[in-house]
Design brief:
heterodimer, A: alpha+beta, BirA Bifunctional Protein, domain 2, two-stranded antiparallel sheet, 14 helices, B: alpha+beta, Phenylalanyl-tRNA Synthetase, Chain B, domain 1, OB fold (Dihydrolipoamide Acetyltransferase, E2P), Phenylalanyl-tRNA Synthetase, Chain B, domain 3, seven-stranded mixed β-sheet, five-stranded antiparallel β-sheet, 23 helices, 42 strands, binds zinc ion
Chain lengths: 366, 848
């Protein structure tokens, strides 16, 4: 580099000539455009921006007389900007290209399986039970539970099922050894009613779910261990109309907008007693021919729901509730039956055998 | 109860044009549930035919086949050409000229069996000559029906070939099967069903013809057969027999057959015709609900004495079973000595009516329901008689039923009734009940008027007297179930129509939602499902040697299990004391079905009898609430049944796949599942080494809550246990108390403050003897590192050349954070050094 020279005419310096600068810009722009990738662009930058004609021209400015510096500096600065702009534009373009290429290169096959840690499943009996509980809890009922190994008094006697009652013989009961020890595996969830009435004072509105036991061998339609859910309401002024209202609500919540029909029945723990059928949700509204072949209802158009009735005065008496002051109703229903009806479970064995492929079909939803 | 519609129509006016479905619907309306509808499904042509020719030939298969021609009147398909119907028949019990039943092409037999002409044994058969079973008339398939035998010569004399056989044989009749609830014993009779149908039609005057209204019943005479009713041990103060009618018919033709209509009705009702005497007793029972017994008079030597059995007595009953009698059994005896029958259940073989019996003593008695029920149960003998007696038989139908039987024996057996008659009647009338006429409305929710209540009760046969305040109701003799106010309320609702009961939602008092226990179960289950576990529900029944299988020590309290007196299988008589006792069954079943990678859980109760406790519950009366002490002793007798969570893992917990190999489930996974469960309840769990069956002694963790409350155990199961159970190697399991989790969550979870300052991490590797538990080292570090330690975790375990043979190197990462400032590096180093010094002092740990 030369020292400042007051007599030096910048016009005389070839590198600072406007033509030369224009040519340098052109050469740089062409070189940048020719760079195919960021690597090549880096080389071009070295040749035309970091070094090269414009950079050399800038170095010449220092040797110019002060009077000439300003104008020459301006000219070189403009040239520098032009080259840098060209570089940056190309760099941005190439970076964008590279990013796009990476995204293409990183493509995977999303159709391959992903089940490294599969989720499990709840048992649909439990889910159905919970759903039923929730229907009544939403109305203000509370949940009550009781032991599965139960006293005979709670399971039978207090429910007006005396030792010689025909209904008591109809139930095939598991007795705890010794058989006269007064303990059984509960045959129904109704002893929870007794426990509830012994420990709470009316008004009582409880829903009682649980496991129950009968000495049936396991086959497609029977299981010795199954589940029931039971309602018990004890209050002043309750009638069979309230019983029917509760059942209707239950049916609608579980099976949709179907009608119910009721008829007289007999259960030792209720008097009057009632049996309820509901319209078959599966074939409701279908043509007669289709209804006749319906597998859900067997072609009758109606499905038997379960027994219910007004709490027998004797049951109240055994629990110390005044039957002249309070009335109450009770209603029981089989969970497995709900599952069979709502979810098309055909074989009871699937419910009890614990095959993961059974629960797995439901996840956490029934 | 099977109800032939033609029979029903004799007793009650059916609604005009009512067929089976309509009658069934009417009966359902009054509470008699339809079980099935039989018959009425035969369509013709089914006609009377006369056999014209028989051409018999033995076939290659050895069977004799008859090529017949049969005159079927104008139904003959080629009758205009003068050619009789050609039919091939496999039976040989008929001759030319016999009248038979012929089904012709186009007809449909029971079961939807459509008839068409078809080629059989080389010739076309244009129809079929029918046997009983093909027409649904019985089981007999030994030959075809020959009408002269089947209907009797008299009735068949009027028949012409071509006559319709559907109505002739009652095949147009429908039989309705209804379910009779235990309170309605009277509906085990045509009389009762007819009465109910009558009620369903509004009880129109004259519409019901009571078959129990029988004329000509003689009074009790001294010349009747002597009968003595005794009872040394009445049950609950009720005598075993309070009415006994004995009637004698002599000179009955032992070869006389029951009339075909009676046989047909018995068949329709599901009973087999046997002999005139037996058929008559069954027929009358079906008609009026009174079980009868027929004795061969000549087998009796003394008077009839009804008494309880004595110790050691035996009786061979009609089913040829010798039974040892119980002192509670009520017996019919010959002169007080030889037992003749178990009262109301079954007769004995010695006094049975036989093919040579000519003189018959008919017994119509009323027995105590409880006595009969107990005998029936004791001898495992449910008969048509016991079924009726234990549900209650009308004590005032006795004499009428005997008279009906006598009349039938006289009419069809040619017998002569003795003029002497015995009727020992110790029954007393029903007492009146003072019914509040507002009670039906109060219970049912339908505003029945006083007049409506009274009218309905009168229709039912009650004697009703309106006292102005209450109404005085005396129930009819056939309704032992009508006792209390609600019984009458149900009758009012039933006859008025259950369908009139409105639907009204009750308004419960505000509830408190699910209980904590239920919420905790849902949270636990949801957590485990999210972690890949599948919920199962197993039977709680386990084998008698489950304790040995699981390798439980001989004094382990879990060996103390409740035993069932009548298990479904002798293989599994005990109730589980841990959930995994039965959960392993589900695991094994899944494995046997080809599942390999399994994570199962169950939340369920286990039964833990208290050692030294008898677990015998008192059975107090029910006429009042038991006193507190009695309730307490019931509760104490019911064994504790805590809820447990059981988990089993087998196979891979992380599956293998295109991404690489799977990771087998190990002890740490099952411990972590319990930790995750606790964590979802805002609880922390600590683990310490434990030796607890059925787990691997070196791979079992005793789990506790932070406050030290024992929670349960988790780890890998003992290899020997796995082998005995037939489970995959390395199966892991956990069993924890759900009750502990629930109790720990009874107080709301509290939030602890946390710092937002930067965290300072520092690692430390400590060489310790192999025997030192990492958890212990970790706890020591945590305790010694000061208040600013946020967490510490083990992130590497090294064994090898750089440490001694019986040593391991544990690498911990420690995180420090102050609540109010950024910690300086030297502060952090200082805390770490304190922690390391404590580990060195306690375990001889050396920092690497
Ligand atoms: Zn349907």
């Amino acid at each position: 580099m030369s020292a400042p020279n007051s007599s030096y005419d910048p016009v005389e310096v070839a590198a600072l000539q406007p033509d030369a600068l224009a040519a340098a810009i052109e050469a740089a722009t062409a070189a940048f455009a020719a760079a195919a990738d960021l690597e090549a662009l880096k080389a071009a930058r070295l040749a035309h921006l970091d070094k090269g004609a414009v950079a050399a021209a800038r170095r010449e400015i220092g040797a110019l007389p002060p009077s000439a510096k300003a104008e020459a500096g301006k000219r070189v600065g403009a040239a520098m900007d032009a080259v840098r702009t060209a570089y940056e534009a190309r760099e941005a373009h190439l970076q964008e290209q590279a990013a796009e290429r990476i995204l293409v290169e990183e493509r995977v096959d999303v159709t391959v399986p992903t089940g490294r840690r599969p989720v499990g499943a709840r048992h649909p009996v439990e889910l159905t039970q919970e759903r039923l509980m929730d229907i009544f809890v939403a109305q203000g009922w509370e949940v009550a539970e009781g032991p599965e190994v139960e006293s005979e008094w709670m399971n039978f006697d207090a429910l007006n099922l005396g030792k010689d009652h025909p209904a008591r013989q109809m139930q095939d009961t598991f007795f705890v050894d010794p058989p006269d020890g007064g303990l059984v595996l509960r045959t129904q969830t109704s002893p929870i009613q007794i426990r509830t009435m012994l420990t709470r004072t009316p008004p009582i509105y409880v829903v009682a779910p649980g496991k129950v036991f009968r000495t049936d061998d396991l086959d497609a339609t029977h299981t010795p261990v199954f589940h029931q859910i039971e309602l018990l309401a004890v209050d002043k002024g309750l009638t069979m109309a309230h019983l029917r209202g509760s059942i209707d609500h239950f049916v609608r919540a579980m099976f949709g907008d179907v009608r119910t029909r009721v008829r007289a029945s007999y259960f030792p723990f209720t008097e009057p007693s009632m049996e309820t059928d509901f319209e078959c949700f599966a074939c409701l509204g279908a043509e007669a021919a289709v209804r006749g072949d319906c597998r859900t209802c067997g072609g009758s158009g109606w499905i038997e729901l379960g027994g219910s009735g007004m709490v027998n005065r004797k049951v109240f008496t055994a629990c110390g509730i005044d039957p002249d002051v309070y009335t109450g109703f009770a209603f029981g229903f089989g969970i497995e039956r709900a599952l069979q009806l709502r979810n098309g479970v055909g074989d009871m064995r699937d419910i009890v055998e614990g095959d993961v492929r059974f629960s797995g079909q439901f996840g956490m939803a029934v | 109860m099977r109800v032939p519609l033609s029979w029903l129509a004799e007793l009650v006016d059916l609604a005009p044009g009512a067929r089976g479905p309509a009658v069934a619907a009417s009966l359902v309306g009054v509470g008699l549930e339809e079980e099935a509808l039989h018959g009425g499904d035969v369509t013709g042509p089914l006609v009377v035919g006369r056999v014209l020719t028989i051409d018999e030939a033995v076939q290659k298969n050895g069977k004799t086949i008859r090529y017949c021609t049969v005159d079927v009147g104008e139904h003959g398909q080629r009758v205009t050409d003068g050619i009789p119907q050609e039919i091939v028949c496999g039976a040989t019990n008929f001759v030319v000229g016999d009248l038979v039943v012929v089904v012709l092409p186009g007809a449909v037999l029971p079961g939807g069996f459509a008839i068409s002409a078809r080629k059989t044994y080389g010739r076309v058969s244009n129809g079929m000559i029918c046997a009983e079973d093909e027409l649904g008339l019985g089981e007999d398939h030994s030959g075809i029906i020959v009408l002269t035998d089947y209907l009797g010569a008299e009735r068949s004399a009027t028949l012409q070939p071509g006559d319709d056989a559907i109505s002739l044989l009652g095949l147009d009749d429908e039989v309705l099967e209804v379910n009779v609830t235990p309170d309605r014993g009277y509906c085990f009779s045509m009389r009762g069903i007819a009465r109910e149908y009558w009620h369903s039609q509004g009880s129109p005057a004259g519409g019901f013809r009571d078959p129990g209204a029988v004329g000509g019943i003689p009074p009790d005479t001294t010349t009747g057969y002597a009968v003595h009713l005794t009872d040394s041990a009445p049950i609950d103060g009720v005598p075993g027999c309070d009415r006994y009618v004995a009637r004698i018919v002599r000179g009955v033709d032992p070869t006389a057959a029951s009339p075909s209509w009676m046989a047909a009705r018995l068949t329709q009702a599901g009973m087999r015709p046997i002999s005139l005497a037996v058929d008559v007793t069954n027929y009358v029972m079906l008609l009026v609900g009174q079980p009868l017994h027929a004795f061969d008079l000549h087998t009796l030597s003394g008077s009839i004495v009804v008494r309880r059995a004595t110790e050691g007595e035996r009786l061979t009953t009609l089913d040829d079973v010798e039974r040892s009698l119980h002192v509670e059994d009520l017996l019919i005896t010959d002169g007080g000595r030889e037992p003749l029958a178990i009262a109301g259940v079954m007769g004995g073989a010695t006094s049975e009516v036989t093919a040579s019996t000519t003189d018959i003593l008919i017994e119509a008695a009323h027995f105590d329901p409880v006595t009969v029920a107990r005998s029936s149960r004791r001898h495992r003998l449910t008969t048509e008689a016991s079924k009726r007696f234990e549900r209650g038989v009308d004590p005032q139908i006795t004499a009428a039923a005997a008279q009906l039987a006598v009349d039938l024996l006289v009419e069809h057996g040619g017998g002569v009734a003795d003029t002497g008659s015995t009727d020992v009647d110790l029954t007393h009338g029903r007492t009146a009940y003072a019914l509040d006429p507002a009670l039906p409305a109060r219970l049912v929710g339908v505003p029945y008027s006083r007049e409506r209540v009274v009218a309905i009760l009168r229709d039912l046969g009650c004697a009703v007297q309106d006292d102005g305040d209450t109404v005085s109701v005396t129930p009819p003799s056939w309704r032992p179930d009508l006792v209390d106010g609600p019984d009458y309320a149900e009758e009012v609702a039933r006859i008025d129509g259950y369908e009139r009961i409105p639907s009204v939602l009750p308004t419960p008092t505000a509830g408190r939602g699910l209980t904590l226990s239920q919420l905790v179960r849902r949270i636990v289950a949801t957590t485990l499902v999210g972690r890949g576990c599948t919920e199962v529900l197993t039977y709680p029944f386990v084998t008698a040697d489950f304790g040995d299988t699981l390798g439980l020590p001989s004094d382990d309290p879990r060996r103390s299990a409740i035993r069932l007196a009548n298990p479904l299988s002798d293989q599994a008589p005990l109730l589980r004391t841990s959930v995994i006792d039965s959960l392993v069954d589900a695991l094994r079943r899944n494995v046997s079905r080809g599942q390999r990678d399994l994570a199962l859980f169950e939340i369920g109760s286990v039964t833990r009898p208290v050692p030294g406790t008898a677990h015998t519950a008192p059975v107090p009366g029910v006429h009042e609430r038991p006193d507190a002490a009695t309730i307490d002793s019931i509760d104490a007798a019911v064994p504790p049944q805590p809820r447990h969570l059981g988990i089993v893992l087998a196979g891979d917990t992380e599956r293998s796949g295109w991404w690489g190999k799977g990771r087998p489930a190990d002890w740490a996974d099952v411990v972590d599942l319990v930790r995750a469960t606790a964590s979802s309840l805002s609880l922390t769990v600590t683990a310490e080494p434990a030796q607890q069956a059925p787990w691997h002694p070196g791979r079992c963790a005793r789990l506790s809550l932070a406050d030290g409350t024992p929670l349960g155990y988790a780890g890998e199961l003992h290899p020997a246990v796995l082998q005995r159970l037939g489970l995959p190697a390395r199966t892991c399991a956990a069993e924890v108390s759900l009750e502990v989790l629930v109790a720990a969550r009874e107080t709301p979870a509290k939030q602890a403050p946390f710092s937002t300052r930067p965290v300072a991490l520092t690692d430390v590797a400590l060489t310790v003897p192999e025997s030192v538990a990492a958890g212990e080292v970790e706890r020591t570090l945590r305790e010694a590192a000061g208040a600013h330690l946020e967490w510490v975790t083990l992130f590497d375990v090294y064994r090898g050349e750089q440490v001694g043979a019986e040593e391991k190197s544990l690498a911990f990462r420690m995180a420090f954070r102050a609540p109010d400032r950024t910690l300086r590096t030297d502060e952090v180093s200082g805390y770490r050094d304190l922690a390391v010094a404590a580990a060195a002092a306690r375990f001889g740990a050396v920092q690497r």
